[in-house]
Every structure is written in structure tokens, then in C-alpha cells.
Amino acid sequence: MSHVVLQRVMVRMLYDPVFTRAVLAGPEAALAGLDLSDEERDWLRRPDSRAWRVDPERPVRSLNILLQQYPAAGALAVRSTGSAEMLLRFFRSAAFHACVQDRGSMATAFGEYLVARTAAGEVPDPRVAEVARLERALVRLHRDAGFDPAPVSTGAAWRLSPDKALHTAAGGTADLHEAVHQALAGSRGDLARAVLESPAPLPGDALDGDRTEYLLLELARDDGPRVRFAAGVTEITEGLHAFLGFASVGREFDALAAGIERLGADPAEAPEVIRGLIEDGTLVAAG
């Protein structure tokens, strides 16, 4: 499988000129630990070095795609740092290189990068980390959902729908996320361009780190392709959040009813509550 390793190294070189120079200067050191032969390392040095620089806008195009998935966190980060340079440095970061070499999700890695850069103080606005965590959870929900909705009316066991996910955040995160989206939408242009260039002011609302916000993330399906799925964020009670976490694996109806009773539901009403969650698609047939 060394040819696959080699292909991934080439992708990294096309994005990161610093890494490219290191490979060309000393492939043994730059590519240490990778399953490549001496001949394969030499292949990387044979082309004219200018070939690796023929498309310098590649990172910008890829960033525009990522900002479709992280518009709120990206916009807050750009306003906080004064430019998109920190965002573009993702393509020269250890997170990016590990993602490509290990065939991970670039969108997930970008969210983790934003969280890490905020924690390191490179992004002065601490809200960026919480919003990036929320948008990363939405990215994962899109990635993990199936093309077809799960059945909702049959089965002996039930579970939380794969079109829904749970998330916790600092108080006010969901409202801030929505408010930034509304501000960007007001620019009436391309979303990525609005993130990078729009002069529209963004909300200054502070988050409440002393309060935990319990959120239910939901995909709203339509008849179009999967990429047109819309995602919603709803704040729910801590009790409902705990119950849906309990229901994240398949459980029989009576077990679910008992679970919601333990959280304080009236025993006489618990079965009806479960039936309501099944009817509205929150719980679906397991398996």
C-alpha cells in the first residue's frame, strides 16, 4: 500500500510549500515513519520543483469549501484576528497533515484546529471555540446520517434517530451561532465570501461558561441530494438530553418507558411520551 502513502504525501506537498521544501531537501527526515521505499522518495524529487507551485490558490479554494461548514466560527475568527491568515495556516498545520496522511475528515480536522488555535490564544475571541465545536458536531451529523431516513413505525427496539445528535455547549452558544448566521445571510452574497469579506457587524453577545446548554441537532431532509440537507439546533432540557443519550442505542419500548420514569416522568404518562417521540421521528426502529 506504499503507493497510497505516496499519493497522500503528494497531496500534502501540493498544499504546503514549507513541507514541500523539506521533502525536496531531505525526504528521509521529512518523511520519516512513512512506509516508502528509497525509490518512491526519489520520485518526489524528480519533477521540476516549480510543478508543486503551479496552483497556489488551491488552499484558498479548499478554505472556501470548509467555510460553508464553519461559517459562524470562521467569521468570528476572521473578525477576531483581522484576517484569514490563521484559517489558511490550517493547510500548513500538523492537524491538516495528519488528516490527509491518515485519510481522516478534513472538515472535522478543521473544526478541531479552530478549537485548538483558540485555546492556544492565537484567536483572541474565546467564543470561536464553542461555535466551532457546535459546527463540528453538525458536520459529523451530516457525515454520519444515511441517504434515506430511518423507518419510524416498525420494530421491537427503538433508538435516537441517526438524523439527530446531542451536544452540550456553554450557555448562549446556540443563540450566538444563529445570530452570526443571520448577520452573514444579510450580506446576500456567497457564504464563504461573506465570512471573509463582509463588513457586516457580528453579534457581541458573551457566552456564559458557568451554564451548560443542552442541544438537540437535527437534519431537515428534502427531496434533493444529501448536500442540501438543512440542520437545526434546538435547546432542550437536561432531563430530555439525558434520556435521549440513554436512547442512543436500541432499547425495547418498556426499557425506554422505565428510563423516562427514572428522570421524573409520571409512570402513567411515560408510554405516551415514548409513543410521541416515535411519532415525531425522534426515536426510530433500531437496526
Describe the structure.
The chain is of the alpha+beta class and 287 residues long. It folds into 2 domains: 52 residues, no CATH class; 228 residues, no CATH class. A 3-stranded antiparallel sheet has the order 5-1-6. α5 packs across α12 and α9 packs antiparallel against α10.
| Poorly predicted ranges | none
Evaluate the radius of gyration.
23 Å
Strand content: 5-15%
Please state the oligomeric state of the protein chains shown. single chain
The tally of helices reads 15
Which shape, going by the Cα principal axes?
A: globular
Strand order of the largest sheet: 5-1-6
Helix amount, in percent? 40-55%
**How many beta-strand segments?**
6
Distance between termini? 34 Å
Describe the structure concisely for a colleague.
With 287 residues, the chain is α+β, with helices and mostly antiparallel strands.
Question: Which secondary structure elements does this structure contain, and how are they paired or packed?
Answer:
Elements: H1 2-15, H2 17-25, H3 27-30, H4 38-43, H5 58-69, H6 71-81, H7 85-88, H8 94-101, H9 106-119, H10 127-144, E1 157-160, E2 164-171, H11 173-185, H12 191-197, E3 208-220, E4 230-235, H13 238-246, E5 251-252, H14 253-262, H15 270-279, E6 283-285
Antiparallel strand pairs: 1-5, 1-6, 2-3, 3-4
Helix pairs in contact: 1-2, 1-8, 5-12, 6-10, 6-11, 6-12, 8-9, 9-10, 10-11, 14-15
